[in-house]
Amino acid sequence: SHLSLGNLEAYADTIADDGPIALIGPRPGDLVVDGTALRERRDRRLYRDRDIRLFSKKLELHLSDDGSAAWVADEISYRVPYAGREAALALRYTALYVRRAGRWEILAEHMSYPLAIDRVVDAAGSERLPRLGKMGTQLAAEAEAVASIARLVHVGSADYRKNHLSTAPASLQWLPTPEGEYRASEITSAVRIGELFGSSAKTQRTGIIAQVTASGSVAWVAEQFFVRSRFNYEDLVVPVRALYVFKRSGEQWKIVQSHLSVPVSDGLLNELVFGERKLSDKNREKAGHTAVSP
Q1: Each residue of 96-128: pLDDT tens digit?
Q2: Which residues have a Cβ under 8 Å from the Cβ of 237 and sit 6 or more positions away?
Q3: CB 256: neighbour CB atoms within 10 A?
Q4: How far is it, in rounded angstroms, from Cα 267 to Cα 269?
Q5: With the C-alpha atoms ordered 148, 153, 154, 157, is the resulting torsion angle positive or negative?
Q6: Which of 30, 73, 100, 179 sits in a 20 to 30 Å window from 111, CA-based?
């Protein structure tokens, strides 16, 4: 994409700026909910001061029946040079586009770094998981139904999940863990987000944006919530961000793609990628580069 290549002007021009949007990244501060804010052209890429390289590994593109909207899923190999070697971050990417006046515009996107469950539990137990930035509430009247589904699908009955989770061949669900990928018929029986952290887990929503596209055939929901649980005798509070793409089937809405993640702090990301929470001056000098900023 233009953002991946550092072309901020071109990237900003593809973002819808006449209503709510949600651009979610791997870190807690990587959140934009106002298209006009992109006029500052701030570079939001990870390790943006490095000679980064990106490779698409598994791009999937889906088009709505009426051709007015499209959504993508991709697995990205994000290459970052440091100290004479190159680290490869495995990122997930979801985006929703709408077609307006002959051009495609982004309404929502979500890029994340999957975390193993033991890493999440360890970071939550040591209070190293970051606080969530403020998303607020932007809920269109016609989007109340999809907002409700996004909340209840995590706690509803098996029948409720079957009614509102698509099992079509192209349907996809990503949970925050590397192994948390489910497709088609696997989705309705997939582990729920709360169950990752124990049977007593409860969710608490802290922000939501829900919109229906102009054609009425596709909708999207971005939300933030906490999972509160007692896991291995510890009280855990895990921040979660999510993006859902809905498709209308008759009078019923179904989730065709969902992408959930746990945001990761700069220090934890450095530790996971390079083995150091704070990249040292010694290694920076050895690599012949300036300071690394995730």
Answers
A1: 999 998 999 999 999 999 999 999 988 888 777
A2: 124, 129, 226, 227, 228
A3: 23
A4: 5
A5: positive
A6: 100
Residue with tokens 């190999």: 77
Q: How far are the Cα atoms of 25, 28, 125, 279 from residue 241, in angstroms, in the given order?
A: 9, 9, 19, 27
Q: Give the pair of three-digit tokens for residue 234.
A: 């510890």
**Paired tokens of 128:** 């190293």
Tens digit of each residue's pLDDT (9 = 90 or more) over 27-76? 988 998 986 665 555 677 888 888 888 899 999 999 999 999 999 999 99
Beta strand 103-112 with 20-24 is parallel
218-231: strand order across its sheet: 137-139, 202-212, 218-231, 234-249, 252-261, 172-174, 181-183
pTM beyond 0.70: the answer is yes
Give Cβ neighbours of residue 17 (< 8 Å, ≥ 6 apart).
35, 36, 38
Please give the Cα distance from 153 to 273 (Å, whole number).
Answer: 33
What average pLDDT does range 241-259 have in this prediction? 96
